[in-house]
């Protein structure tokens, strides 16, 4: 039951929520509406005048091969990041779930990457894979593989995917581990008595029971890869080589701040906003459904 | 079907010893109960039989195989857990079929067995439901069904009724007993409830603090408890223990509060010492003309209909506390002084220090 609180005066409740509302207006509603408005304008080449063009910017975007290519690339990138980091985190969590001694140390180490800022995490991977100085480049060279993500688009994509996935592993690990540990131990024991070995128990009991968490993390990771990998990409490849790692957020930045196509860039950000909103709706609608033990 | 043999079984968690020196041979088709207070190691012992806990000392065999190093799946057992441990994401049917599928039993055979078991347990109508859509009693039945359908050689139960309400508990208790009689499968049942233990078990193991206090049939434990612990644990309300001084020839006990009672004849030789006299509340009779009588002062009377519980002191107000259970409805007032009698053969004597039984 929710408790109802009765306020004596009518202004107090408003005063209490005012700071929240103010912050939301200043940092979200206002810029968002600016972007919406901006996306309906076209500026001339010198930025002196602008013309209201309705949805021309959007129509142009969806006719633009480059934009659609970026869209595809972003989807590939996001799902690769989500899949890679979740698969890795799931493996680690499954192992940690069975570890008893030293479990806390193990967990603490695994949580560290999450505390690292995306740009720093990017810088770390740049150092390790630097075509001339990097330790991995050197090792790969010794094994006969010539690594240069500054020239090879595929390698560049691989690198930003790995760097982004690495950043998310800790977060996913924590959620997976918490989900696994909330499964009553007797369920696993019952399955063991029923004759299921460790692999079978994992696939037929644990995986289905943590599926709400998996779904939740799927959405979170896709959102992360879509929007929060800007820092990593900026530090590692700047969207290159030849736009091979330019994903949607990076294109907004490139077109808007480098290319100065403000209307087109704003239209792109409005599309991104719609994607976020729909992902959030999916999140709320389906993740709330819990498994009952 | 199988015998279970425990040989000097013990369990330690690091330095902490939670079970020691347990020896027991459970016969084929027998229904035995491990009973004791919470934390005495009942579940641990059962889980060692199941293979869910390692055996740190001794040896357990099921049938003619030593199972110490076998996985739970290889022991041919089924277990019913206290919280039922039903797979929440599977239907009732799949919960029951899971173990059969893993064993590679053909589909039509699985279906036949699940249906047949569901019939026995009267859960045939719920086969497509998820466990969360069932009541506690129904879940309990499904958990039993999951164990039965596998046709194991041993059933293990860990307090399976403790999550049910009192009425359902009595009903399920009876059903478990009938089911076990019908299937004749060796069963080990763990409970902290002495009524459950007495009603279900062919034989009981009373555990206390990790060691066996006594093994025996319910009647043996009731009539001849070997320790004060067992005497107090079995029977409700609990046995009265009254400190007394034994006469020189061992024929009488003298209590504070002014009473004296005659003791069983064969006790001579124990004379002139302190003893703890055990008398069950139902063995004290309201009988002025009895041969072995004593007085009691009434403090509180509880009417249960079928019987009347009298709480008071033995002798005058200075005497030790006492509970008497009288048949039927008796009108007794507060502070009334009753004359009670007891058959000397119903008197149990214990060493007040070691708690060991003195009379043979
Ligand atoms: N994993 C464990 N580590 C240490 N001590 C344990 C562990 N499991 C149980 N114990 C101890 O063993 C004793 C017996 O526990 P248990 O068998 O669950 O008791 P019961 O089922 O009779 O209530 C308890 O004192 C408990 O604290
Ligand atoms: Mg227990």
Tags for this model:
heterodimer, A: 293 residues, mainly alpha, MetI-like fold, globular, B: 360 residues, alpha+beta, 5-stranded antiparallel β-sheet, 20 strands, 32% strand, binds adenosine-5'-diphosphate, binds magnesium ion
Report on the architecture of this protein.
- The complex is a heterodimer of chains A (293) and B (360).
- With 293 residues, chain A is mostly helical.
- Chain A has a single domain, classed as MetI-like fold (Orthogonal Bundle), CATH 1.10.3720.
- Chain A contains 13 helices and 2 strands.
- In chain A, strands 1-2 form a two-stranded antiparallel sheet.
- In chain A, strand 1 and strand 2 form a beta hairpin.
- The radius of gyration of chain A is 24 Å and the shape is globular.
- Chain A starts with 10 loop residues before the first helix and ends in a 6-residue tail after the last helix.
- With 360 residues, chain B is α+β, with helices and mostly antiparallel strands.
- Chain B contains 8 helices and 20 strands.
- Chain B has helices spanning 42-50, 92-102, 107-121, 136-148, 166-183, 194-200, 218-223, 228-233; strands spanning 4-13, 16-26, 31-35, 57-62, 65-66, 77-80, 154-158, 186-191, 203-208, 211-216, 240-246, 252-254, 260-262, 274-279, 285-286, 293-303, 307-314, 321-327, 337-341, 348-350.
- Chain B is elongated and about 75 Å long.
- Chain B starts with a strand and ends in a 10-residue tail after the last strand.
- The mean pLDDT of chain B is 91.
- Classes of the chains: A mainly alpha (293), B alpha+beta (360).
- Bound molecules: adenosine-5'-diphosphate (ADP) and magnesium ion (MG).
Q: Order of SSEs of chain A, N→C?
A: HEEHHHHHHHHHHHH
What structural category characterises the helix and strand content of chain A? mainly alpha
Q: Approximately how much helix is present in the residues of chain A?
A: over 70%
Shape of chain B: elongated
Percent of residues in beta strands of chain A: under 5%
Poorly predicted parts of chain A: none
Unreliable residue runs of chain B? none
């Amino acid at each position: 039951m929710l408790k109802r609180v009765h306020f004596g005066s009518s202004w107090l409740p408003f005063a209490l929520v005012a700071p929240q509302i103010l912050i939301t207006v200043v940092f979200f509603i206002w810029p968002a509406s600016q972007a919406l408005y901006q996306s309906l304008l076209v500026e001339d080449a010198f930025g002196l005048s602008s013309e209201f063009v309705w949805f021309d910017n959007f129509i142009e975007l969806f006719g633009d091969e480059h934009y659609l290519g970026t869209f595809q690339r972003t989807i590939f990138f996001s799902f690769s990041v989500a899949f890679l980091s979740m698969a890795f985190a799931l493996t680690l969590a499954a192992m940690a779930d069975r570890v008893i001694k030293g479990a806390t140390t193990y967990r603490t180490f695994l949580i560290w990457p999450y505390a690292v800022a995306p740009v720093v995490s990017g810088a770390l991977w740049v150092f390790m894979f630097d075509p001339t100085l990097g330790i991995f480049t050197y090792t790969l060279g010794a094994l006969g593989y010539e690594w240069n993500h500054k020239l090879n688009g595929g390698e560049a994509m691989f690198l930003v995917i790995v760097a982004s996935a690495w950043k998310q592993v800790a977060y996913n690990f924590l959620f997976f581990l918490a989900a696994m540990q909330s499964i009553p131990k007797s369920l696993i024991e019952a399955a063991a008595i029923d004759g299921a070995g460790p692999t079978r128990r994992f696939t037929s009991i644990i995986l289905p029971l943590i599926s709400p968490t998996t779904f939740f993390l799927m959405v979170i990771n896709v959102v992360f890869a879509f929007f929060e990998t800007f820092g990593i990409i900026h530090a590692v490849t700047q969207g290159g080589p030849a736009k091979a790692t330019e994903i949607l957020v990076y294109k907004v930045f490139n077109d808007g701040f480098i290319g100065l196509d403000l209307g087109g860039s704003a239209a792109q950000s409005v599309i991104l906003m719609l994607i976020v909103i729909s992902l959030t709706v999916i999140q709320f609608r389906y993740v709330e459904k819990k498994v009952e033990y | 079907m199988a015998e279970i043999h425990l040989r000097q079984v013990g369990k330690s968690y690091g330095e902490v010893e939670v079970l020691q020196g347990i020896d027991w041979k459970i016969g084929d088709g027998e229904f035995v109960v491990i009973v004791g207070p919470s934390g005495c190691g009942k579940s641990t012992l059962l889980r060692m039989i199941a293979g869910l806990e390692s055996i740190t000392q001794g040896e357990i065999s099921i049938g003619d195989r030593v199972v110490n190093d076998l996985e739970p799946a290889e022991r041919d057992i089924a277990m019913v857990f206290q919280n039922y441990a039903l797979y929440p994401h599977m239907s009732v049917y799949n919960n029951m079929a899971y173990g059969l599928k893993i064993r590679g039993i053909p589909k039509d055979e699985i279906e036949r067995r699940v249906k047949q078991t569901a019939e026995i347990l009267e859960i045939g109508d719920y086969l497509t439901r998820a466990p969360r859509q069932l009541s506690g009693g129904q879940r309990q039945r499904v958990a039993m069904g999951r164990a039965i359908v596998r046709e194991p050689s041993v059933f293990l139960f860990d307090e399976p009724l403790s999550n049910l309400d009192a009425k359902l508990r009595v009903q399920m208790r009876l059903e478990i007993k009938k089911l076990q009689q019908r299937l004749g499968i060796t069963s080990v049942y763990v409970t902290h409830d002495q009524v459950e233990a007495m009603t279900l078990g062919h034989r009981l193991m009373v555990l206390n603090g990790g060691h066996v206090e006594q093994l025996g049939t319910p009647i043996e434990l009731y009539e001849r408890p070997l320790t004060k612990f067992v005497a107090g644990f079995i029977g409700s309300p609990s046995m009265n223990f009254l400190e007394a001084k034994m006469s020189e020839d061992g024929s009488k006990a003298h209590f504070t509060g002014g009473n004296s009672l005659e003791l069983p004849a064969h006790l001579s030789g124990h004379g002139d010492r302190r003893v703890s006299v055990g008398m069950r509340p139902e063995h004290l009779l309201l009988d002025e003309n009895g041969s072995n009588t004593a007085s009691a002062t009434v403090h509180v009377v509880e009417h249960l209909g079928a019987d009347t519980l009298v709480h008071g002191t033995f002798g005058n107000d200075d005497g030790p506390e006492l509970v008497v259970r009288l048949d039927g409805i008796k009108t007794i007032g507060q502070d009334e002084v009753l004359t009670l009698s007891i058959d000397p053969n119903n008197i149990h004597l214990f060493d007040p220090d070691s708690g060991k039984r003195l009379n043979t």
